[in-house]
Amino acid sequence: xxxxxxxxxAINKYLRHAQxxxxxxxxxxxxxxxxxxxVSDYSKMIVGVAGNSRLYHFRxxxxxxxxxxxxxxxxxxxxQNRSLDISQHEERGNLLNYLGKPNKFQPFVSKKMKLTDGxxxxxxxxxFWGDVSEIEMADALEGVKDSEQYTDLLxxxxxxxxxxxVENYTVAAIFVNKVYQETNKNKMKYIKMxxxxxxxxxxxxxxxxxxxxxQAKKLAELTVEMKDHExxxxxxxxxxxxxxxxxxxxxxxxxxxxxxxxxxxxxxARKLRVTQLIINGDKSAETGKFTEALEHYEKAKKExxxxxxxxxxxxxxxxxxxxxxxxxxDAIKDADFRFEAEDYNxxxxxxxxxxKKALAISFTGETQIKTKIEDTQEKINELKKVQKELKAEGLxxxxxxxxxxxxxxxxxxSYTLAQEIYQETELLAKVLGLERKxxxxxxKLNPVPQVQPADNALPNEAEPxxxxxTDAS
Length: 473
Hints:
Blueprint: H1 8-25, E1 35-40, E2 44-50, E3 54-59, E4 62-66, H2 72-79, E5 108-109, E6 113-114, E7 119-124, H3 126-129, H4 134-139, H5 147-159, E8 171-176, H6 184-204, H7 207-238, H8 242-259, H9 262-286, H10 290-305, H11 312-320, H12 322-340, H13 344-360, H14 366-404, H15 408-424, H16 428-445
Antiparallel strand pairs: 1-2, 2-5, 2-6, 3-4, 3-7, 7-8
């Protein structure tokens, strides 16, 4: 790039140049891509987007800007004038614009946005933001020192979802440690602008007072929001819904940060930590990592002591139930082995016993055991269906043999039994086929007598009786 420029027109031109290159290379297969770019002069930035790759701009741990997707899901949300999370919307991948689009390529280019020291820019594809929430992105910033630590932590969060299929994802972070400072000449210009603004405030009169009242109202609203999130988190925690509790505490802590309330910020941060440790312990226990699970529970207990024993009962109960959890997990492994060996009845019996124990101690892995029971029962039902079909086929074949020997009564009996089984297994075509065979056998068993012509039947008027024909000669 000989003469790089930082203007909306220039960025649009660069994106269109990339579009032309991609189209030129689409010889056999149409190439396409979603893209997000950031151009900066070290004091401001401009964002360009084509598709649903995104930029998140964080300042002081709070999300201040998020780029807009060019997708049908985003258009639906915009048309409803609502602020909704489209990360799980079924149309989020239906792109209205992207690199490689055959015609009417219209990328989005933002206005210039100011950068300050400590800002963090996160660029990512839909494979990432579809599974990692904005709250988690903001929370992950706490304690990290550079972009590598940040992206590593975000990747851990993404992979912790343990999806069966992980979509392709790309994530990159930029830490704005120091922005370019303006010269003295430019500073004087800004001082003049500030002075003009102050004069304007004095002329308007009461503007400053109005701002203070408005600010107080905002702080009051944030306080209510923080308290509501904490209450919701406590209810979710007591109900054992730890994922929802985690989200509520995180949102409450963010509100406390905005309020600059260190007491509630630390309180909610510790509740968040205890909840996360319990979740981690439960996951470790479910996968048979019992030593690791106990470590998580002990840490949660220790952390909870600092806030009046928060979560103490839940944690101690889990530690006390660890022996039972070990038995349950061992039983599941045994049942899994039997399932793989196609001993479905044996597996089902073990799963059911394990689930009964899991319910007794409120083991979080109970839902997975329930799913395993359903899958095993389905396999048993499939086998039973196959066995019934084989039995029906044997009866139908026996009926065919009886029919061939002209033993029609036995043939009808075999066909009828086979037909009943096919009805149970919902094989309609087989049912109809046997119905025809039964009718044929009945016809053979009870033939319809043929009607003989009567002696006094009148001769056909169209043709004279044979004995009345006379010789024409």
